[in-house]
Amino acid sequence: MAARVLRPLPRPKPFNRLQVILQHLKMSKQTDSTAEVLLEKKGGAGIITLNRPKALNALNLSMIRQIYPQIKAWEKDPETLLIIIKGTGGKAFCAGGDIRAITDAGKVGNKLAQDFFKEEYTLNNAIGTCKKPYVALIDGITMGGGVGLSVHGHFRVATEKTVFAMPETAIGLFPDVGGGYFLPRLSGKIGYYLALTGFRLKGRDVLKAGIATHFVESEKLPALEKDLIALKSSSTENIAELLNSYHMKSRVDQEKDFVLDEHMEKINRLFSANSMEEIVKNLKQDGSPFAIEQLETINKMSPTSLKLTLRQLREGASMSLQDVLTMEYRLSQACLRGPDFYEGVRAVLIDRDQSPRWKPPALEEVTDEFVDDCFKPLGSNDLKL
């Protein structure tokens, strides 16, 4: 009798495997207050709570692997009418991705660095294509990965505590998580300005820039959440009506002008160039205090990141979200191959000396050939959405 050849069973795909595990757990650990992310169903609402307050709710791979299958399950569930996402701790919605873990993995060639970006962008796409109304309560710091968890959904509710920024060019990265899709679609050149300088928008300004859809006082969020949970039918119109009613009653900073109002003419003119060198030239020629300040900021950023970012936004302006995320995955892998990402994280997050030594150190030394190379398809390693 011939010996039977034992073939290894195919490994289940991570998301399917997780769905099975979640079903086994029957959501039991989801209400455990020590879990990094809480997933619960209240009334007609599926509620995602980012629960790493000490880490400002930074997003890690295990959180992504819990949130993605849950969004997909709620999307199919006729009893889930809408999805709400929020953060705990009162300081942050989500301050970004777990960059330290990614750099540690990238340095030693660990697959986590690829998996993180691949699965994070797959989650961003799931939010962007979600068939159920998706409401992000962006109370507190909302940067990087936190932007990806909120900006692609139907509704983004900012409060007076919201601090929005895409500061990636300062750490040798680029404004990813679909930044190439939503930033160039903001009015004028404001998205380019935010992407290249990492400028922080606060409170009502996040709404005025077109990033948030509504503004509600932070202390009113529990009442708003209760009303969202109580909705008997939740068409996007119903939810918009409820959010509008809270928005109309919010008085905080109502009289204040948009922080960038007085500079918008300059931003639109100076940041509309075709290359980073031209933007720098424009700022130098303008010579106003505002232009000089932007020049000083840009000079601190990774020259490679600046060039990748400008092209990312220019190309992303006419691409679908899926194509943008595929492009950004290619860029993420290019950044993991080069020195600036590790150096930026060292200077800003590890040693905190704030003096990164970029390679190359000048814009002129980042060649078009090098930039082209970063955008090239990765064949079988490409992100598939």
From TrEMBL:
What does the organism's lineage look like at the top? Eukaryota, Metazoa, Chordata, Craniata, Vertebrata
Name the UniProt record assigns to this protein: 3-hydroxyisobutyryl-CoA hydrolase
Entry annotated with the keyword Transferase: no
Q: What Pfam families would the database entry show?
A: ECH_2
Tell me where on the tree of life, at the top rank, the source sits: Eukaryota
Which residues belong to any copy of the Enoyl-CoA hydratase/isomerase domain? 46-375
> One GO MF term, please?
3-hydroxyisobutyryl-CoA hydrolase activity
Q: Where in the cell is it found?
A: Mitochondrion
> Has the keyword Mitochondrion been applied to this entry?
yes
Quote the InterPro entries the UniProt record gives.
ClpP/crotonase-like_dom_sf, ECH_dom, HIBYL-CoA-H
Biological processes, Gene Ontology terms: L-valine catabolic process
Pathway per its UniProt entry is: Amino-acid degradation; L-valine degradation
Q: What class of enzyme is it?
A: hydrolase
Q: Which GO terms describe its cellular component?
A: mitochondrion
User: Main localisation, per the record?
Assistant: mitochondrion
Function recorded in the entry: Hydrolyzes 3-hydroxyisobutyryl-CoA (HIBYL-CoA), a saline catabolite. Has high activity toward isobutyryl-CoA. Could be an isobutyryl-CoA dehydrogenase that functions in valine catabolism. Also hydrolyzes 3-hydroxypropanoyl-CoA.
- What does the record give as the reaction this protein catalyses? 3-hydroxy-2-methylpropanoyl-CoA + H2O = 3-hydroxy-2-methylpropanoate + CoA + H(+)
Gene3D superfamilies (alphabetical)? 2-enoyl-CoA Hydratase, Chain A, domain 1
| Gene name of the record | HIBCH
Question: What EC number(s) has UniProt assigned to this enzyme?
Answer: 3.1.2.4
